[in-house]
C-alpha cells in the first residue's frame, strides 16, 4: 500500500525522523538552559534510535552514505543514552552527553535537508551533493551545529538527571 507515492514503512521512517527533529529543538534548547525534561529527552532518544534503525530496513545492495550516517548516529545516541541513564552525567559524561545530543540532532537535520533537496522540485533539487544550493544549506547547518555544540558543552551544567 502506498500513500502519496510512499510505502507505509517509508511513512513510519519519515514520521520518526520528524518526531526526532521536533523533539530535538526542545531538548537542545533545554540543554542550553541546563535543563533536561525526561519525557522530551526519552522521546528524542527513542525516535532517534528508531529513525536510524529503520533506515536499514530499505532495500540496498551495498552500504551507502545514509547507512554510514545511520551507524554514526546510533553510536552517538548510544553515548548519550549511556551518559544520561548509566553514568548519570558524572564527570566527563556531562559534556559527552551534551555533545552527543546536539550531534544526533545534527545528523537527523542533515538527512532531512538532503531528502528535501532530493524530493522537493521547487528547491531546485540538485542531482549531486556538490551543487551550490545543497552545499550552502549544509554549510549553514554545520556552522549552526558547531556553534550549538560549543555552547551546549560550555553551558550545560546540570549534575543530575
SSE pattern: EEHHHHH
By DSSP, the count of extended strands is 2
Terminal residue distance = 43 Å
Query: Major β-sheet, in short?
Result: 2 strands, antiparallel
> What is the total domain count?
1
- Please list the strands of the largest sheet in the order they lie side by side: 1-2
Radius of gyration: 16 Å
Q: Tell me, what's the shape?
A: globular
> How much helical structure, as a percent, in the residues?
over 70%
Structural class estimated from helices and strands: mainly alpha
* Overall average pLDDT: 89
Main traits of this protein?
single chain, 161 residues, mainly alpha, two-stranded antiparallel sheet, 5 helices, 71% helix, globular
Structure commentary:
By secondary structure, the chain is mainly α. Helices cover 71% and strands 2% of the residues. Strands 1-2 form a two-stranded antiparallel ribbon. The longest helix is centred in the middle third of the chain and has 27 residues, at 93-119. The mean pLDDT is 89.
Give the helices and strands, then pairings.
Elements: E1 2-3, E2 6-7, H1 8-32, H2 38-54, H3 65-86, H4 93-119, H5 132-155
Antiparallel strand pairs: 1-2
Helix pairs in contact: 1-2, 1-4, 2-3, 3-4, 4-5
In short:
With 161 residues, this protein is an all-alpha fold. The chain has helices at 8-32, 38-54, 65-86, 93-119, 132-155; strands at residues 2-3, 6-7. It has one domain (2-155).
Amino acid at each position: 500500500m502506498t500513500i502519496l507515492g510512499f510505502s507505509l514503512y517509508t511513512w513510519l521512517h519519515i514520521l520518526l525522523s520528524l518526531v526526532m527533529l521536533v523533539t530535538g529543538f526542545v531538548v537542545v534548547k533545554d540543554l542550553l538552559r541546563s535543563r533536561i525534561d525526561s519525557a522530551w529527552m526519552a522521546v528524542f532518544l527513542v525516535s532517534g534510535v528508531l529513525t536510524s534503525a529503520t533506515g536499514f530496513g530499505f532495500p540496498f545492495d551495498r552500504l551507502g552514505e545514509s547507512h554510514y550516517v545511520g551507524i554514526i548516529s546510533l553510536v552517538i545516541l548510544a553515548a548519550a543514552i549511556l551518559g544520561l541513564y548509566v553514568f548519570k552525567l558524572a564527570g566527563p559524561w556531562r559534556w559527552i552527553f551534551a555533545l552527543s545530543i546536539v550531534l544526533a540532532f545534527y545528523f537527523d537535520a542533515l538527512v532531512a535537508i538532503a531528502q528535501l533537496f532530493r524530493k522537493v522540485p521547487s528547491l531546485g533539487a540538485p542531482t549531486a551533493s556538490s551543487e551550490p544550493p545543497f552545499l550552502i544549506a549544509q554549510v549553514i547547518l554545520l556552522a549552526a551545529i558547531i556553534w550549538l555544540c560549543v555552547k551546549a558543552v560550555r553551558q550545560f551544567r546540570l549534575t543530575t538527571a
